[in-house]
Amino acid sequence: MPERIVEEIDAGQRVDLWLSQKESSCSRVRWQQLIRDHQVRVNDEPVKPNHSLRPGQTVNWTIPPPAPTRLVPEDRPIRVLFEDEDVLVLDKPPDWVVHPSAGHETGTLVHALLHHCGESLAGIGGERRPGIVHRLDQDTSGALIVAKTEIAMRELVRQFKAREVEKEYLALVVGQARPPEGRMETLLGRSPTHRKKMSTCVQHGRLAVTFYETMEQFEEAALLRIRLETGRTHQIRVHMAHLGCSVLGDTVYGRGGTKTLTAPRQMLHAYRLSFTHPRTGQRMTCCAPVPDDMQVLLMELRARKRSRVRE
Predict the structure, then answer these.
(1) Residue where one domain finishes, among candidates 18, 34, 61
(2) Considering its fold, how many domains does the chain have in total?
(3) Which is more confident, 243 or 310?
(4) 196 vs 169, 182, 201, 250, CA distance in Å?
(5) Other beta carbons within 10 Å of 134
(6) Beta strand 268-276 with 141-147: parallel, antiparallel or unpaired?
(7) Is the pLDDT confidence value at 69 over 60?
């Protein structure tokens, strides 16, 4: 059983934080779960994650093998943008749910990942969401990172929290953004009237920052490039609605379309993702090609624009 002696310099630290710093094989969240499961002991006594350490104490632990997952791997093709032993970056298709949830117990990206990566992925970051570092809405397509080891999970989660991961999206929106480019900063939290929706009309939400730029303007819609400084739930969709140009196809925060323009889903695509590789330290950028349904709409909008110019 591995063990460490608490040094004078570490006096007063929480045991979960101390372990995550000293033993990088597990994330802090994983250490907290191990502590709650009494797999970590201080002076041979079980403790809580917030236990304050004292110099000279002996901390030992046991890391059990991952519990067999109840999720059944499913053979669904994954579009790989990059993969090595630590990290997988994929291009999530629209309509794919990322992880199991109520109403989506099968057919998720996680089920496909378990088939693609094998048993080694089971238990990384949790049984229900193995490997999942961040997520995209069901109808949002594009680049998504998966951690294949606990070390990669811990480091990638840290990068997301520290806002070191650069996320760039493409969005087709209804009407036009006014002004055509800018920075939005609001609080974002649960809507006080619709608990399944997020809202900027809150008093105690979390800070949300979005940068946007109009790339192409059409008569009824616009193509925007959007960069996130923060990554809140539904952030782009709420901010675009707040700006008066909801994402085309979004029926939750907007009307979905216009009199002559409809979309099969919300036209939001995670185009570019930049992060630091958790093992090599190399800065990496992965780009996901614009999906077919968005390409079709763009071609239609461009054709309409050319026709009006000729008139």
Answers:
(1) 61
(2) 3
(3) 243
(4) 23, 28, 14, 14
(5) 16
(6) parallel
(7) no
**Of residues 149, 130, 24, 129, the one with CA closest to residue 85:** 149
Question: Backbone phi, then psi, for 115, in 5-degree steps?
Answer: -75, -40
CA distance 222 to 178: 11
Residue 263 is assigned to a structural domain of this protein: yes
137 is catalytic: yes
Q: Which CATH number is 242's domain given?
A: 3.30.2350.10
Q: Which of 10, 16, 91, 137 is catalytic?
A: 137
Q: 73 in a domain, yes or no?
A: no
pTM: 0.78
Dump pLDDT digits (tens) for 123-159: 787 767 889 999 999 999 999 999 999 899 999 999 9
Peptide bond into 179 cis (omega under 30): yes
In DSSP terms, 170 is beta-bridged to 225, 269
Q: Report pLDDT digits (tens) over 28-61.
A: 888 998 999 999 999 999 999 999 999 999 999 9
